[in-house]
Design goal:
With about 230 residues, this protein is α/β, with parallel strands linked by helices. The protein has two domains: about 120 residues, 3-Layer(aba) Sandwich (Rossmann fold), CATH 3.40.50; about 100 residues, Orthogonal Bundle (Arc Repressor Mutant, subunit A), CATH 1.10.10. Helix 2 runs parallel beside helix 3 and helix 6 packs across helix 8. The chain is elongated. The protein starts with a strand and ends in an 8-residue tail after the last strand. The mean pLDDT is about 85.
Length: about 230
């Protein structure tokens, strides 16, 4: 999952980026609204965290422009305590949720995870697919209730496929949503991650959780227990 953090307070921005990266999110950052608008227009994100009091272009105008241009990723706004009018204006501009400064990182993660699940059509943080279970809060995958030892790249790849279950995801889309812009774009690297995931999640080759759609990409096609 790729997150855009837009915050002009350098200390808070660094705290947010560090905390998100510790949770295995890929994070890109901007200190002002103009640069953030460029990033939002040029690159795909799964969620944005936007402070409303930004230089060059306000958070409100940034959100309005992104929404007017059809960007649908969830947005969490950051507001100062007591500025209820900013909260209302931010939500009316197209934000999905808000946090009042100062806030606890645990609350940010709870709201962030809820928005990502909702965007993918899930209500609960734990998804079950037969013997496979993925806990998006703890970033853990289980096979027959036993934790599977995944690297951060392997987990991110699997989580993105699960959150887009049933869709064919191209290698380009996977790379853009999971990794920084300077990530090695060699498709062979992604193929290695997928091959290792298949070995770890389906050692007996009976589930086939990740299928290859020749010439198009990969698809996670197992049925969620909640949909049965």
């Amino acid at each position: 999952m790729k997150i855009l953090v837009v915050e002009d307070d350098s200390d808070l921005r660094r705290q947010l980026v560090s905390a998100l990266e510790d949770k295995n999110y890929t994070v890109e950052e901007s200190p002002d609204g103009e640069e953030a608008l460029y990033l939002g227009q040029e690159y795909p994100y799964d969620l944005a965290i936007i402070d409303l009091g930004l230089p060059k272009l306000s958070g409100i105008d940034l959100i309005k422009t992104l929404r007017d241009e059809g960007k649908e990723f969830p947005i969490i706004i950051l507001t100062a305590r007591g500025d209820w009018q900013d909260k209302v204006e931010g939500l009316e501009a197209g934000a999905d949720d808000y946090l009042v400064k100062p806030f606890h990182m645990e609350e940010l993660f709870a709201r962030l995870n809820a928005l990502l699940r909702r965007a993918a059509g899930h209500a609960k943080p734990v998804f079950e697919y037969g013997p496979l279970k993925i806990d998006t809060t703890g970033n853990v995958v289980y096979l027959n209730d036993t934790p599977v030892n995944l690297t951060s790249y392997e987990y991110r790849t699997f989580e993105y496929l699960v959150l887009n279950a049933g869709k064919t995801i191209s290698k380009t889309e996977l790379t853009e949503h999971l990794y920084h812009q300077d990530f090695d774009r060699d498709s062979n690297v992604l193929e290695v991650f997928v091959r290792r995931l298949r070995q770890k999640l389906d050692p007996d080759q009976t589930l086939q959780p990740i299928t290859t759609v020749r010439g198009l990409g990969y698809r996670f096609a197992l049925e969620n227990k909640d949909s049965e």
